[in-house]
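User: Can you predict the 3D structure of Lipoprotein? Sequence below.
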Amino acid sequence: MTRSRTVRRLAAAAAVSLLPLLAACGAGTDTDTGSESHASNGEKTTDGSSGQLDIPADANADLKKQYLLENAIAACMKKQGFPYTPVAPEDPAASWTTDGADYELTKKYRQKYGFGIYAGIVYPGDAGAPGSAAARQDSDRTPNADYVDTLTPGQKAAYDKALGAFPDPKAGEKNWTGCLGEADKKVYGSASARERGTATTNRNQANAQALNGDPKLVALAQSYASCLRKEGISVTTTQPTGIGEMVKLQAFESTPAGAGGVSAADGSGNAQESLSKEEALPLLTRDIELAMRDLECGKEFRAAYFPKFLKAPTSGGGAG
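Assistant: Sure. Here are the predicted C-alpha coordinates for Lipoprotein:
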Protein backbone atom coordinates (compact mmCIF):
# COMPACT_ATOMS: atom_id res chain seq x y z
CA MET A 1 0.00 0.00 0.00
CA THR A 2 1.05 3.59 -0.32
CA ARG A 3 2.44 5.19 2.80
CA SER A 4 2.58 8.72 1.46
CA ARG A 5 0.67 10.11 4.41
CA THR A 6 3.37 8.81 6.72
CA VAL A 7 6.32 10.19 4.83
CA ARG A 8 5.06 13.57 3.67
CA ARG A 9 7.73 16.19 3.66
CA LEU A 10 6.91 19.89 3.62
CA ALA A 11 10.24 21.37 2.68
CA ALA A 12 11.51 19.14 -0.10
CA ALA A 13 14.34 20.39 -2.24
CA ALA A 14 13.36 21.96 -5.52
CA ALA A 15 14.83 19.01 -7.38
CA VAL A 16 12.61 16.60 -5.52
CA SER A 17 9.54 18.62 -6.48
CA LEU A 18 10.21 17.67 -10.09
CA LEU A 19 10.26 13.90 -9.54
CA PRO A 20 6.50 13.41 -10.06
CA LEU A 21 6.84 15.05 -13.46
CA LEU A 22 9.31 12.44 -14.59
CA ALA A 23 7.23 9.60 -13.20
CA ALA A 24 4.08 10.86 -14.90
CA CYS A 25 5.50 12.09 -18.17
CA GLY A 26 8.84 10.50 -18.97
CA ALA A 27 7.36 7.33 -20.33
CA GLY A 28 9.14 6.18 -23.43
CA THR A 29 12.63 4.96 -24.21
CA ASP A 30 12.19 3.77 -27.79
CA THR A 31 14.68 4.90 -30.39
CA ASP A 32 12.44 5.91 -33.32
CA THR A 33 12.63 9.55 -34.33
CA GLY A 34 9.84 12.07 -34.65
CA SER A 35 8.88 15.21 -32.78
CA GLU A 36 5.55 16.37 -34.15
CA SER A 37 2.90 17.28 -31.63
CA HIS A 38 0.18 14.70 -31.11
CA ALA A 39 -3.24 15.40 -29.62
CA SER A 40 -4.84 13.19 -26.99
CA ASN A 41 -7.38 11.93 -29.51
CA GLY A 42 -4.60 10.61 -31.74
CA GLU A 43 -4.67 13.52 -34.21
CA LYS A 44 -1.54 15.53 -34.94
CA THR A 45 -1.68 19.17 -33.95
CA THR A 46 0.60 22.18 -34.20
CA ASP A 47 -0.86 23.75 -31.06
CA GLY A 48 1.18 22.67 -28.04
CA SER A 49 -0.36 25.13 -25.59
CA SER A 50 -2.18 23.72 -22.59
CA GLY A 51 -2.61 27.02 -20.76
CA GLN A 52 -0.96 28.47 -17.69
CA LEU A 53 -1.77 28.04 -14.02
CA ASP A 54 -3.08 30.98 -12.03
CA ILE A 55 -0.96 31.48 -8.92
CA PRO A 56 -3.05 31.75 -5.71
CA ALA A 57 -2.78 35.17 -4.11
CA ASP A 58 -2.04 33.65 -0.70
CA ALA A 59 0.68 31.26 -1.91
CA ASN A 60 3.99 31.57 -0.08
CA ALA A 61 7.29 32.13 -1.90
CA ASP A 62 8.14 28.43 -2.23
CA LEU A 63 4.69 27.50 -3.54
CA LYS A 64 4.73 30.39 -6.04
CA LYS A 65 7.99 29.08 -7.47
CA GLN A 66 6.45 25.64 -7.93
CA TYR A 67 3.61 27.21 -9.92
CA LEU A 68 6.09 29.22 -11.98
CA LEU A 69 8.10 26.07 -12.61
CA GLU A 70 5.10 24.20 -14.02
CA ASN A 71 4.19 27.15 -16.25
CA ALA A 72 7.78 27.43 -17.49
CA ILE A 73 7.88 23.72 -18.37
CA ALA A 74 4.63 24.07 -20.33
CA ALA A 75 5.95 27.10 -22.24
CA CYS A 76 9.20 25.31 -23.07
CA MET A 77 7.43 22.16 -24.23
CA LYS A 78 5.19 24.25 -26.47
CA LYS A 79 8.29 25.62 -28.19
CA GLN A 80 9.44 22.02 -28.68
CA GLY A 81 6.14 21.14 -30.35
CA PHE A 82 4.58 19.19 -27.49
CA PRO A 83 1.59 19.99 -25.29
CA TYR A 84 2.24 19.85 -21.57
CA THR A 85 -0.48 20.41 -18.98
CA PRO A 86 0.96 22.25 -15.96
CA VAL A 87 -0.04 20.48 -12.76
CA ALA A 88 -1.07 22.64 -9.81
CA PRO A 89 1.24 21.81 -6.88
CA GLU A 90 -0.29 20.86 -3.57
CA ASP A 91 -0.10 23.47 -0.83
CA PRO A 92 2.06 21.74 1.82
CA ALA A 93 0.06 23.32 4.63
CA ALA A 94 -3.17 21.91 3.19
CA SER A 95 -1.66 18.43 3.01
CA TRP A 96 -1.41 18.35 6.81
CA THR A 97 -5.04 19.23 7.55
CA THR A 98 -6.13 15.59 7.97
CA ASP A 99 -2.74 14.56 9.31
CA GLY A 100 -2.85 16.43 12.60
CA ALA A 101 -2.87 20.15 11.80
CA ASP A 102 -6.67 20.42 11.93
CA TYR A 103 -8.02 18.43 14.87
CA GLU A 104 -11.61 18.11 13.63
CA LEU A 105 -10.66 17.06 10.09
CA THR A 106 -8.05 14.62 11.40
CA LYS A 107 -10.62 13.17 13.80
CA LYS A 108 -13.10 12.65 10.97
CA TYR A 109 -10.41 11.00 8.84
CA ARG A 110 -9.20 8.67 11.58
CA GLN A 111 -12.71 7.67 12.64
CA LYS A 112 -13.13 6.06 9.21
CA TYR A 113 -9.61 5.20 8.03
CA GLY A 114 -7.51 5.00 11.19
CA PHE A 115 -3.88 5.47 10.17
CA GLY A 116 -4.84 4.36 6.66
CA ILE A 117 -3.16 0.96 6.82
CA TYR A 118 -6.15 -1.29 6.12
CA ALA A 119 -8.72 1.19 4.80
CA GLY A 120 -7.79 0.55 1.17
CA ILE A 121 -8.80 -3.10 1.48
CA VAL A 122 -12.06 -2.43 3.30
CA TYR A 123 -13.01 0.47 1.00
CA PRO A 124 -11.54 -0.44 -2.43
CA GLY A 125 -13.81 1.98 -4.29
CA ASP A 126 -13.08 4.95 -2.03
CA ALA A 127 -10.39 7.21 -3.53
CA GLY A 128 -9.96 8.81 -0.10
CA ALA A 129 -8.82 5.52 1.42
CA PRO A 130 -5.02 5.17 1.19
CA GLY A 131 -3.96 2.20 -0.90
CA SER A 132 -7.43 1.58 -2.33
CA ALA A 133 -7.84 0.55 -5.95
CA ALA A 134 -9.61 3.85 -6.60
CA ALA A 135 -6.79 5.87 -5.00
CA ARG A 136 -4.12 4.05 -7.01
CA GLN A 137 -6.06 4.58 -10.22
CA ASP A 138 -6.40 8.31 -9.51
CA SER A 139 -2.70 8.70 -8.73
CA ASP A 140 -1.64 6.83 -11.87
CA ARG A 141 -3.57 9.02 -14.29
CA THR A 142 -2.64 12.58 -15.18
CA PRO A 143 -3.35 14.63 -18.32
CA ASN A 144 0.30 14.33 -19.32
CA ALA A 145 0.39 10.57 -18.79
CA ASP A 146 -2.79 10.22 -20.84
CA TYR A 147 -1.21 12.27 -23.62
CA VAL A 148 2.01 10.23 -23.63
CA ASP A 149 -0.07 7.06 -24.00
CA THR A 150 -1.25 8.32 -27.41
CA LEU A 151 2.27 8.73 -28.81
CA THR A 152 4.13 6.36 -31.09
CA PRO A 153 7.44 4.94 -29.80
CA GLY A 154 9.38 7.53 -31.79
CA GLN A 155 7.24 10.38 -30.52
CA LYS A 156 7.65 9.17 -26.94
CA ALA A 157 11.42 9.21 -27.33
CA ALA A 158 11.30 12.75 -28.71
CA TYR A 159 8.95 13.82 -25.92
CA ASP A 160 11.26 12.39 -23.26
CA LYS A 161 14.24 14.19 -24.76
CA ALA A 162 12.35 17.49 -24.89
CA LEU A 163 11.08 17.14 -21.33
CA GLY A 164 14.49 16.23 -19.93
CA ALA A 165 15.70 14.01 -17.15
CA PHE A 166 16.96 13.84 -13.58
CA PRO A 167 20.70 14.55 -13.16
CA ASP A 168 22.84 11.44 -12.74
CA PRO A 169 25.28 12.00 -9.82
CA LYS A 170 27.40 9.04 -10.97
CA ALA A 171 28.02 10.86 -14.24
CA GLY A 172 28.86 14.07 -12.40
CA GLU A 173 25.63 15.74 -13.49
CA LYS A 174 24.19 18.44 -11.24
CA ASN A 175 21.26 19.82 -13.22
CA TRP A 176 18.15 18.66 -15.00
CA THR A 177 18.20 18.51 -18.79
CA GLY A 178 15.68 19.56 -21.43
CA CYS A 179 12.68 21.68 -20.49
CA LEU A 180 12.96 20.58 -16.87
CA GLY A 181 16.43 22.09 -16.77
CA GLU A 182 15.46 25.25 -18.65
CA ALA A 183 12.47 25.87 -16.39
CA ASP A 184 14.47 25.08 -13.26
CA LYS A 185 17.14 27.64 -14.16
CA LYS A 186 14.53 30.25 -15.10
CA VAL A 187 12.71 29.94 -11.77
CA TYR A 188 15.50 29.09 -9.33
CA GLY A 189 18.52 30.75 -10.90
CA SER A 190 22.04 29.44 -11.41
CA ALA A 191 22.34 27.30 -8.25
CA SER A 192 22.17 23.61 -9.14
CA ALA A 193 19.40 21.34 -7.88
CA ARG A 194 21.98 19.52 -5.76
CA GLU A 195 23.19 22.78 -4.18
CA ARG A 196 19.65 23.86 -3.41
CA GLY A 197 18.92 20.44 -1.95
CA THR A 198 21.89 20.78 0.40
CA ALA A 199 20.75 24.25 1.46
CA THR A 200 17.24 22.94 2.11
CA THR A 201 18.57 20.06 4.19
CA ASN A 202 20.61 22.47 6.31
CA ARG A 203 17.58 24.72 6.77
CA ASN A 204 15.40 21.77 7.76
CA GLN A 205 17.92 20.65 10.35
CA ALA A 206 18.10 24.14 11.85
CA ASN A 207 14.30 24.33 12.00
CA ALA A 208 14.12 20.90 13.66
CA GLN A 209 16.64 21.92 16.30
CA ALA A 210 14.61 25.02 17.08
CA LEU A 211 11.38 23.03 17.44
CA ASN A 212 13.02 20.37 19.58
CA GLY A 213 14.47 23.07 21.82
CA ASP A 214 11.21 24.97 22.28
CA PRO A 215 10.40 24.77 26.04
CA LYS A 216 6.62 24.79 25.55
CA LEU A 217 6.71 22.06 22.91
CA VAL A 218 9.09 19.97 25.01
CA ALA A 219 6.73 20.15 28.00
CA LEU A 220 3.67 19.32 25.89
CA ALA A 221 5.50 16.41 24.26
CA GLN A 222 6.24 15.00 27.72
CA SER A 223 2.55 15.24 28.64
CA TYR A 224 1.64 13.61 25.33
CA ALA A 225 4.04 10.75 26.08
CA SER A 226 2.63 10.28 29.60
CA CYS A 227 -0.89 9.98 28.17
CA LEU A 228 0.25 7.38 25.64
CA ARG A 229 1.92 5.31 28.35
CA LYS A 230 -1.29 5.36 30.39
CA GLU A 231 -3.06 4.02 27.30
CA GLY A 232 -0.55 1.18 27.14
CA ILE A 233 1.14 2.55 24.03
CA SER A 234 4.91 2.27 23.71
CA VAL A 235 6.84 5.56 23.62
CA THR A 236 10.15 5.53 21.75
CA THR A 237 10.76 9.28 21.49
CA THR A 238 9.61 12.46 23.20
CA GLN A 239 11.18 14.88 20.72
CA PRO A 240 8.59 17.34 19.38
CA THR A 241 9.57 16.59 15.77
CA GLY A 242 9.18 12.85 16.27
CA ILE A 243 6.45 12.06 18.75
CA GLY A 244 3.51 13.06 16.56
CA GLU A 245 4.20 10.37 13.96
CA MET A 246 5.66 7.84 16.37
CA VAL A 247 2.51 5.78 17.01
CA LYS A 248 1.60 5.79 13.33
CA LEU A 249 5.05 4.60 12.30
CA GLN A 250 4.91 1.83 14.90
CA ALA A 251 1.56 0.75 13.49
CA PHE A 252 2.99 0.62 9.97
CA GLU A 253 6.02 -1.36 11.13
CA SER A 254 3.76 -4.03 12.65
CA THR A 255 1.60 -4.29 9.54
CA PRO A 256 1.13 -7.89 8.35
CA ALA A 257 2.13 -8.82 4.81
CA GLY A 258 -0.59 -8.15 2.27
CA ALA A 259 -2.02 -5.03 3.91
CA GLY A 260 -2.98 -2.24 1.56
CA GLY A 261 -4.72 -4.31 -1.08
CA VAL A 262 -1.58 -5.16 -3.05
CA SER A 263 0.57 -8.27 -3.06
CA ALA A 264 3.45 -8.24 -0.60
CA ALA A 265 6.64 -10.27 -0.39
CA ASP A 266 7.92 -12.34 2.50
CA GLY A 267 11.48 -12.30 3.83
CA SER A 268 12.62 -14.52 0.98
CA GLY A 269 11.08 -12.30 -1.67
CA ASN A 270 8.23 -14.69 -2.43
CA ALA A 271 4.91 -13.08 -3.34
CA GLN A 272 2.15 -13.26 -0.75
CA GLU A 273 -1.54 -12.74 -1.27
CA SER A 274 -3.21 -9.55 -0.09
CA LEU A 275 -5.45 -9.61 2.94
CA SER A 276 -9.12 -10.12 2.19
CA LYS A 277 -11.71 -7.55 3.18
CA GLU A 278 -12.94 -9.93 5.88
CA GLU A 279 -9.41 -10.27 7.28
CA ALA A 280 -8.75 -6.53 7.11
CA LEU A 281 -11.98 -5.34 8.75
CA PRO A 282 -11.10 -6.27 12.38
CA LEU A 283 -7.58 -4.93 11.82
CA LEU A 284 -9.04 -1.64 10.61
CA THR A 285 -11.22 -1.47 13.72
CA ARG A 286 -8.16 -1.84 15.95
CA ASP A 287 -6.23 0.65 13.81
CA ILE A 288 -9.01 3.21 14.24
CA GLU A 289 -9.02 2.71 18.01
CA LEU A 290 -5.24 3.19 18.20
CA ALA A 291 -5.29 6.23 15.91
CA MET A 292 -8.02 7.89 17.97
CA ARG A 293 -6.20 7.30 21.27
CA ASP A 294 -3.07 8.82 19.76
CA LEU A 295 -5.04 11.79 18.43
CA GLU A 296 -6.65 12.57 21.78
CA CYS A 297 -3.39 12.22 23.72
CA GLY A 298 -1.65 14.59 21.32
CA LYS A 299 -4.46 17.12 20.90
CA GLU A 300 -2.91 19.88 23.02
CA PHE A 301 0.57 19.20 21.67
CA ARG A 302 -0.49 19.40 18.01
CA ALA A 303 -2.43 22.63 18.62
CA ALA A 304 0.82 24.26 19.74
CA TYR A 305 3.18 22.42 17.38
CA PHE A 306 1.68 22.93 13.94
CA PRO A 307 1.50 26.75 13.90
CA LYS A 308 5.25 26.80 14.59
CA PHE A 309 6.06 23.90 12.28
CA LEU A 310 4.20 25.37 9.31
CA LYS A 311 6.16 28.61 9.65
CA ALA A 312 9.49 26.77 9.78
CA PRO A 313 9.05 23.24 8.38
CA THR A 314 11.54 20.43 8.77
CA SER A 315 12.05 17.43 6.51
CA GLY A 316 9.47 15.58 8.61
CA GLY A 317 6.34 16.79 10.33
CA GLY A 318 6.54 14.77 13.49
CA ALA A 319 2.98 15.56 14.47
CA GLY A 320 0.87 13.62 12.02
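The first helix runs from residue 19 to 25. The mean pLDDT is 80.
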